[in-house]
Amino acid sequence: TWLPSRMKGLILLALLGIAVAERWDATSEKLQGIHIDAQSMRIAHLRHELEELEELVSHDNDKQYNRVIAELDNRIDAEEEHDCHDHQFTCGRSTGQCVPDILVCDGVNDCDNGHDEDQSFICKNQAPAGRSWSGTANWKGCVTRTTNHMSVLITGNKRMRHFPSRLWVDAVIVDKWTEDHEEVTKTWTSHGFYDYAHHRLVLDPPEGSEKRIMLICDDGGEGVGDCKMVREHDQSVCGHATLLREVH
Predict the structure, then answer these.
(1) What is the 8-class DSSP label of residue 76?
(2) What are the residues facing 205 on neighbouring strands?
(3) Taking the mean position of all CA atoms in its chain, how far away is CA 201?
(4) What whole-number distance in Å separates Cα of residue 160 and Cα of residue 65?
(5) Cα(72)–Cα(193) distance, integer angstroms
(6) Are residue 98 and residue 153 in the same domain, yes or no?
């Protein structure tokens, strides 16, 4: 069939564009496959590291370590089964890419744009020793009082080689309230971790406390901690607190 030369040229350009697009799609798919394979290898490495950690603490009856190891074990299982779920880190709204949050701030770029290793913000230590927050806690059922003044002081921290995406912390929590016209002060020692991926501070129930209440604080920006008090046994929320970072 005869076609004008101009139309033939347009058809050739269209066919060339399709060929280039198909080649690009194939290349992108291959690169994505390589990236996924690399993440799978990293998760397998984490599995090995967790087994070593379990061996190290196998003779230690510390409930904190046992609970954390069990949680990490479940998280690794989840990463092996799903590409993207609730426990994810977003590489940026414009990218649409997510990576397992347990791979954040581990020294390896998992996001294509390297956002998971951003040292200026994501991987910055927001819970250094000496940092403190204070504010008002409002309770709903955990304790008999409805409100009290609360302060949290980070007394120490360390970063473990096995899971650098978390910073393990020691803290002191001080609650103050009035009861029967008298000032009451309770000081608690707690341990927990700071989650780099979600900018979240998680403190286990204070030592010696019968209530077994955890404190979980998300970074609300501008030095504000959006906190909730959570029952350890069923993870139900029984209080909230807005804590402001203190400037010394």
Answers:
(1) H
(2) none
(3) 9
(4) 12
(5) 13
(6) no
